[in-house]
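Q: What residues go here?
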């Protein structure tokens, strides 16, 4: 766990399920960008299912990229189960490469084994594991390494079903309580469940953030001398 690394503010969202230009999800995306700018957040984390599926129209992707460019802060996108990182996905289409490359503030988690994205100017590192299949047998937090530097804030992002202390075979993308605790992260940004819920408060804070498209809310996560404080904001 970190030992106080200066104040940072993160916007945590997930499950927008963008489907078509002009829908409620587009309104939610625009509203959360406005909130992020108003709240002067340092980073945005999208914990899966930004898009409803991988066949969405190019114009919708263009709109999304323009909104993220307008936010103009480091933004992490985790492919979820709807917009998983398969060949020809919305994040990998050849015809969209120029658009995605034109937003250097946006990073997409691409490793199915898990990877750490470092942001030295913010003293933040973010670990995530991309979903690269429509199968539901992946474990979003399996293999998360222990933090190697207590002078930074350590965040994880995961898209899956919190199963508590027991493995639940009726659900895919399972995240266990033990995996959350053993991650030793300061905060875990969860997606997949459209609820606002704290599933672990100590020693690791792990929250679902609900869906801007369904509930019209996001999480604002403040990192500071008092630890991690999570507030639900209405868009």
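A:
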């Amino acid at each position: 766990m970190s030992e106080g690394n200066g104040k940072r503010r993160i916007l945590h969202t997930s499950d927008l399920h963008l489907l078509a230009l002009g829908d409620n999800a587009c309104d939610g995306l625009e509203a959360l960008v406005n909130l992020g700018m108003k709240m002067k957040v340092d980073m945005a984390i999208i914990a899966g299912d930004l898009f409803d599926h991988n066949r969405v129209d190019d114009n919708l992707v263009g709109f999304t990229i323009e909104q993220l460019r307008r936010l103009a802060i480091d933004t992490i996108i985790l492919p979820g189960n709807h917009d998983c990182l398969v060949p020809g996905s919305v994040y990998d289409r050849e015809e969209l490469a120029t658009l995605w490359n034109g937003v250097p503030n946006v990073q997409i988690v691409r490793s199915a084994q898990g990877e750490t994205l470092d942001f030295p100017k913010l003293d933040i590192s973010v670990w995530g594991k991309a979903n690269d299949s429509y199968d539901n047998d992946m474990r979003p937090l399996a293999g998360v390494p222990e933090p190697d530097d207590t002078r930074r804030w350590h965040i994880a992002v995961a898209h899956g079903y919190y199963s508590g202390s027991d493995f639940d075979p009726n659900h895919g993308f399972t995240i266990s309580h033990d995996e959350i605790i053993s991650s030793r992260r300061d905060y875990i940004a969860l997606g997949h469940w459209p609820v606002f819920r704290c599933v672990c408060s100590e020693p690791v804070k792990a929250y679902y953030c609900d869906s801007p498209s369904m509930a019209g809310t996001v999480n604002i996560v403040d990192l500071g001398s008092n630890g991690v404080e999570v507030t639900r904001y209405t868009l």
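A: Context that may help when evaluating the design: The domain at 8-158+171-196+203-234 is CATH 3.60.21.10 (Purple Acid Phosphatase; chain A, domain 2). The mean pLDDT is 93.
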